[in-house]
Every structure is written in C-alpha cells, then in structure tokens.
Design goal:
Elements: E1 12-15, E2 22-24, E3 29-37, E4 44-50, H1 52-58, E5 60-62, E6 67-69, E7 76-83, E8 89-91, E9 96-104
Antiparallel strand pairs: 1-9, 2-8, 3-7, 4-6, 4-9, 5-7
C-alpha cells in the first residue's frame, strides 16, 4: 500500500509491483505496475511524481511528470518510468519508484471572447521574465 515516509511528507510513496526485476537501459522507458487502484475524492486529482533520490543517483524519473490520475479513474495505478542516466537501472519488486500527491482541482468553464484583458507581461512566453 502507498504510504507517507515521514509525518511531513507531501507525497505517498509508490512501490513497484513487478513480477520480476525490470532493467531499463539508458533511454528506455517502461510502465511499472504498483499493484493497487484507488478512488479519489470528488474535485481531486492524483499527481504521480518522480522520487528525487533515484533521479539524482540513477537518472530514473517519471516520463510524463507529473502524471495525472483523474478522480473517475478506477484502474491499477502504473508509473511511466524512463532511464535518463548513463547506466542500466534495475527496478525490483517493492522498491519505491514514484510518489503520489493528491491535490484539489479547480474546474473552469471555457468561454470564447474576442480579446483578453491586457497585462504588463502580455504574450511574453518562455524566457520572457529573464530566467
């Protein structure tokens, strides 16, 4: 079962439920099962995020981070992992591979308009603020 590693942890650790060890060579990706399903509260989503230790040590990360679990999804939670490191990485059964943060979701109604209000930033995008 997913669990919080510490009382102050924001994310539940997700463990691999693979039948046999999975080896990812550099650049390879795989869908890693976790062995559980969940029912999220109405108005919430699950955000599947990488674990920082494995990302730093091995280059192992979640490919579509954060992955979104919708409130109406009822299948097994799986994690799309990728090896961005320089050496093969082995994922063992029971090993913590990702974390799950449950967050509220604001729903909006899309409305077509002729133009948007103006702001100081305007349409400035990537790198616009100097970073």
């Amino acid at each position: 079962m997913p669990s919080y590693a510490t009382p102050g942890a924001a994310g539940l650790d997700l463990a691999a439920a693979v039948r046999a060890p999975v080896t990812l060579v550099p650049g390879e990706r795989a869908l890693i099962p976790t062995g559980f399903a969940l029912a999220l509260p109405t108005g919430h989503e699950g955000q599947v995020r990488p674990r920082s230790g494995r990302a730093l040590r091995d280059g192992l990360t979640v490919l579509n981070a954060p992955g979104t679990i919708d409130e109406d999804f009822r299948g097994e939670v799986q994690v799309l992992m990728v090896n961005l490191g320089q050496a093969p990485v082995v994922i063992e059964r029971g090993e913590r591979v990702a974390q799950l943060v449950v967050a509220r979701v604001a729903r909006v109604e899309c409305v077509e308009v002729e133009r948007l209000d103006t702001t100081v930033r305007g349409a400035g995008g990537f790198g616009h603020t100097g970073a």
